[in-house]
UniProtKB/TrEMBL annotation:
Pfam families for the chain: ECH_2
Record protein name field: Enoyl-CoA hydratase/isomerase family protein
Record's keyword annotation contains GTP-binding: no
InterPro entries in the cross-refs: ClpP/crotonase-like_dom_sf (IPR029045), ECH_dom (IPR045004), HIBYL-CoA-H (IPR032259)
């Protein structure tokens, strides 16, 4: 086991590589150091014949499980983005490369998606071969609330949700539970949280013949859970298939449905500019492989911090939520109707030539 004060604890138990995120006070928010530790560990284990599979979990203040990962360390992003710290660039390049590795990992990768699984937490679990959710799972890609977009491959996995639920999740940042996650293709199965510890122990004590046997055994441990979003599926598809953010919000506001009114009110709180960016992101990603999506998102996140010097929606969104905590972001433009096409289109122009892109070596 790595030293207990480390933020990422790793240990090979039996034939399983076990990873525990160990930053409970920050809900295991990912730092650059944690991304690097995860990457180094996974690269080492992928060629280690002793390791048949990898299992990932988070910890909370009382112990293990209860929270997988709340996302990236947004306080670091604000500090680095405000001071020109070059580690900001390193963080996103290396995080996205880690996401890509997990999606293409040659061995079973089992993600215990208990508790909060948001943002970067989705990035280190959506590529898993077994995505386990519990009754405590709170899953979301809430980036539009901080003037960002659902990155870490969010365009890829959200765009592949049924109907227009990907647009709905990406634009609103709504939180879903276990049953909805399974129904939307964002989880593979349900295990009651009370059984997680015994499942973890059994993984490392079973005598598995090979990696395929691990995967088969884990698949057999997962059940189903009731979905709730289905009541809104028809409305989600009706509104979020519309051609623009302006059209979506206008139609929602004209509806007599309580759900439509609440959804419109929620969208009005998000960054108007980033809503336009995110709608385009999801729709472009629907026709892309993961590597191309991650390259597009790397372009986009560069623009989030540097496209408009002194006017970063992301820095303003994080300031309002996590720094000053006034929960009153001053978005620019202030209203959905004021966003010009050229403003959101600029996010999809790569700042690098293809051969020099920081993720140019990724392939699917």
């Amino acid at each position: 086991m790595t030293e207990t004060n480390a933020l990422v604890l790793t240990e090979v138990r039996g034939r399983i590589g076990c990873i525990t995120l160990n930053r409970p006070r920050a809900l295991n928010a990912l730092s650059l150091e944690m991304v690097r530790d995860l990457m180094a560990t996974l690269l080492q284990w992928q060629n280690d014949p002793q390791v048949l599979a990898v299992a990932l979990r988070g910890s909370n203040k009382e112990g293990v499980f209860g929270a997988l990962c709340a996302g990236g360390d947004i306080r670091f992003l604000h500090q680095a983005g405000s001071t020109g710290n070059p580690q900001l660039e390193d963080f996103f390049t290396e995080e996205y490369a880690l996401n890509h590795l997990i999606h293409h990992y040659p061995k079973p990768y089992i993600a215990f998606m208990d508790g909060i699984v948001m943002g970067g937490g989705m990035g280190i679990s959506q590529g898993a071969s077994a995505r386990i959710v519990t009754e405590r799972t709170k899953m979301a890609m809430p980036e539009t609330a901080i003037g960002l977009f659902p990155d870490v491959g969010g365009g890829h996995f959200l765009s592949r949700c049924p109907g227009r639920t990907g647009e709905w999740l990406a634009l609103t940042g709504e939180t879903i539970g276990a049953g909805d996650a399974i129904a939307l293709g964002l989880a593979d199965g349900y295990v009651p949280s009370a059984q997680l510890a015994s499942l973890w122990e059994a993984l490392s004590s079973q005598n598995f013949a090979d990696s395929a046997a691990v995967q088969k055994w884990v698949d057999g441990q997962m059940g189903t859970a009731e979905a709730h979003f289905a009541k809104q599926q028809a409305e989600i598809d009706q509104y979020f298939a519309l051609p623009s953010v302006r059209a979506i919000v206008a139609a929602l506001e004209e509806s007599a449905s309580d759900w439509a009114q609440a959804t419109a009110a929620l969208l009005r709180k998000r960054s108007p500019l980033m809503l336009h960016v995110v709608l385009e992101q999801v729709r472009q990603a629907r026709g892309m492989g993961l590597a191309d999506d991650l390259r597009m998102e790397r372009d986009m996140v560069r623009h989030c911090f540097y496209l408009r010097p002194g006017q970063s929606e992301t820095l303003e969104g994080i300031r309002a939520l996590a720094v000053d905590k006034d929960h009153a972001p001053r978005w620019n433009p202030a209203r959905i109707e004021e966003v010009q096409d050229a403003q959101w289109q600029a996010f999809f122009v790569s700042p690098w030539p293809a051969h020099a892109h920081p993720l140019c070596t990724l392939a699917d």
